[in-house]
Amino acid sequence: MAVREICKNVYSVGVIDWDRQIFDELLPLPEGTTYNAYLVVGSEKTVLIDSVDPEFEEEFITNLARSNVSKIDYVIVNHAEQDHSGSLPVFLELFPGSKIITSEKCKDLLASFHNIPDSRMIVVGDGETLSLGDKTLEFLITPWVHWPDTMITYLKEDGIMFTCDLFGAHYATGSLFVDDRISHYILAKRYFAEILMPFRHKVAEYLDRLSGYEFGIIAPSHGPVYNDKEYILDAYRDWSSDNVKNRVIIPYISMHGSTRKMVMYLTESLISKGVSVRPYDLGKVDTGLLAMDLIDAATIIIATPTVLFGPHPKVANLAFLSSILKPKAKLLGIIGSYGWGGKTVKDLEDMVHKLNVEILEPVYIKGAPAEKDFEALDRLSDEILNKHREYKII
Length: 394
Description:
- The protein is α/β, with parallel strands linked by helices and 394 residues long.
- 34% of the residues lie in helices and 25% in strands.
- The chain is built from twelve helices and 24 strands.
- It has helices at 57-66, 82-85, 88-94, 104-114, 181-196, 200-210, 230-239, 258-272, 287-294, 313-325, 344-351, 371-390; strands spanning 4-7, 10-12, 15-17, 22-23, 27-28, 33-35, 38-41, 46-49, 74-76, 99-102, 121-123, 129-131, 136-141, 151-155, 160-164, 217-220, 245-252, 276-281, 297-303, 306-307, 310-311, 331-338, 358-359, 363-366.
- The strands form six sheets. It has a seven-stranded mixed beta sheet. Strands 17, 18, 19, 22, 23 and 24 form a six-stranded parallel beta sheet that branches. A five-stranded mixed beta sheet has the order 12-13-14-15-16, with no helix packed on it.
- The protein starts with a strand and ends with a helix.
């Protein structure tokens, strides 16, 4: 990526990963990603903010060379995860006089990940500042966005928040600033669902804190920079709130068709009652899209056949994923079909016990659905409708 100026003496020096298809061997990245790093040149000191994934350390160092700075005094590490810190070892080797500035927790992680000695690191506390001469940096310790080590760096004179994972978006783009709000909104929402949803209460807390600062630019560690911040702040206030929508999602697997018949019947029943609904075939779905829908859904219906004695493994994986993502849903139901026995419903209820949801009466039947089973699904859709009315979302 070319070195680009955000404002006078503040530069983007990160790299674009056009081809990455998966993150953490878990999250699909259909649009690639960027690893952002920033250079701030003060009248007395120069700092680098974050580094990049180690796969791109050569491009990263090339960018630093192109920036024409002869000395970098500090590198600020807002978050120790390797896609932000992985190029630190080579950086520290090439800039032997530089020091790392980071949080106490991040210092421990950097020592573990990269064997960086204490002598190269300076720990800062919440609200501490660093003068670069004509520019001042303030450090906001913001744990659990999305690791316990996270902090934000505020450049006072230029009104820039360097927020690391907060407000990020996974997609490769040559645009320095957000230039297409519609497509960016979708990808930023997907990023929030996959990365930040488990920590949304902390995100809401930090949104309140940021409202006390004057800034016009948000520079995250993934995706483009924001020079019009209000729309993404409004989106984050919605996503991190407790608000849910009149929305049901039905992740399902069907081995021989019976569970799918139940899913399609329930889908039609909900539609007829004015409830928004989306079934997701777990054999085909992009889990990132499903995660994005979890931000808004008031109700989750898990639909699975029984495999030997329990739920289908893909449904078990979904239940586990839901438990760690901690969506806002208020209701959860289980439907499906079995052949000769098992304890699928009990197993699934145990898997989702960390979710703060009301468990609905399951509709779990033997064999193919009959008339009485469709009537039970109608009663389930009635109950969902009534609950959504109680929540005043319909």
